[in-house]
Design brief:
The protein folds into 2 domains: 13-113, 2-Layer Sandwich (Phosphorylase Kinase, domain 1), CATH 3.30.200; 117-296, Transferase(Phosphotransferase) domain 1 (Transferase(Phosphotransferase), domain 1), CATH 1.10.510.10. Helices cover 39% and strands 18% of the residues. It contains 9 helices and 13 strands. Strand 9 and strand 10 form a beta hairpin. It is globular, with a radius of gyration of 23 Å.
């Protein structure tokens, strides 16, 4: 693992010689997620006064010096920490907030802000579009700072207690030097298969910002409809290589399947985000400036004026009866 810069304020990165330090610092309440890579726990800091205690999400990876797999997972967690940590002093409300990183002989841990729920799917467009604006803003924010997420999907979108969507799990994220001619250029194909852009699935050189936009567009469709645009139903599963190739064939043609219900404006926006030709696909700035948002704002103003008029008319009718 690369050391942090000597100029960094390392009051949120700790290395301990004894595993017992974890139990001295953190109260592990319950496991809230797990996988081959490790587990996620709901925790509290023991040092905080009970009245001020905050729940934390703790991503924990086991260390084993004899295992190359374990070393790779710890390195991935370290890279994830470095990316979200650089945003700590420059936060965005829809990006998970980093709290600390702890390293002991047996564990590597990131602590982050805790949000209680995953984003729901099959919700009304009037509700979902508020989430979409937040998430597009978050991706625009990341890309402007040289960061790509590389694994955007509903399972990596939490909801805060205030109902704001929060992008999490930066395990596949990459940070680029914006001054480099190689910034955002990749030919890697990692990520979740159903959300991979066609060029990323094929492992050909691509702009990772455009592949983020594709994954976000698939996620938006799923939040509205309950499945991805390339699945005929929400029970479709890409289990075999044949399933994947069939699915990716649809993405390559940009062919949506099944039925869906959304406004024409939303459909046009998602078609721009899901163009199989990355050169024709919109970027985050263009998606944020899409006419859909201006139309929705205008529609909201019209509805507000109509509501005010109806309220005034009702008040006048009441007066006429007095």
């Amino acid at each position: 693992m690369e050391p942090l810069s000597s100029n960094d304020n390392t009051t949120d990165v700790f290395s301990f010689q004894d595993d017992e330090e974890l139990s001295n610092r953190l109260q592990f309440i319950k496991e809230i997620g797990c996988g081959n890579w490790g587990s996620v726990w709901l925790c509290e800091l023991k040092s905080e006064d009970r009245a001020n205690k905050r729940p934390l999400a703790t991503k924990l990876v086991h260390r084993n010096k004899e295992s190359k797999t374990s070393a790779a997972r710890v390195k991935s967690l370290w890279n994830e920490m470095k990316i979200i940590r650089r945003l700590k002093s420059d936060p965005h409300p829809s990006i998970i907030k980093f709290e600390s990183f702890l390293l002991t002989p047996s564990y590597a841990i990131i602590t982050m802000a805790f949000h209680p729920d995953l984003v729901t799917v099959q919700v009304s467009e009037s509700h979902a579009r508020v989430w979409f604006k937040h998430l597009l803003s978050a991706i625009q924010f990341l890309h402007s700072r040289g960061i790509v997420h590389n694994d955007i999907k509903p399972a990596n979108i939490l909801l805060s207690a205030k109902g704001i969507p929060v992008l999490c799990d930066f395990g596949f994220a990459e940070a680029y030097d914006l001054g480099s001619s190689a910034a955002f250029h990749s030919r890697f194909a990692y990520g979740t298969p159903e959300y991979l852009a066609p060029e990323r699935a094929r492992g050909i050189p691509h702009d990772t910002r455009k592949s983020d936009i594709w994954s976000l567009g698939v996620s938006f469709f799923e939040i509205l409809v309950g499945r991805t645009p390339f699945e005929s139903s929400d029970t479709d599963q890409c289990v075999t290589e044949e399933d994947l190739q069939k699915y990716w064939g649809r993405t390559l043609r940009g062919k949506w399947v099944g039925s869906w219900k959304m406004s024409k404006g939303m459909e046009r926006l998602l078609k721009r985000m899901l163009s199989p030709n990355a050169d024709l696909r919109c970027n985050a700035d263009e998606a944020m400036q899409d006419i859909y948002w201006a139309q929705m704002q205008q529609s909201n103003h019209v509805n507000e004026h109509r509501k005010a008029f109806l309220n005034l008319r009702g008040f006048c009718q009441i007066l006429s009866l007095i």
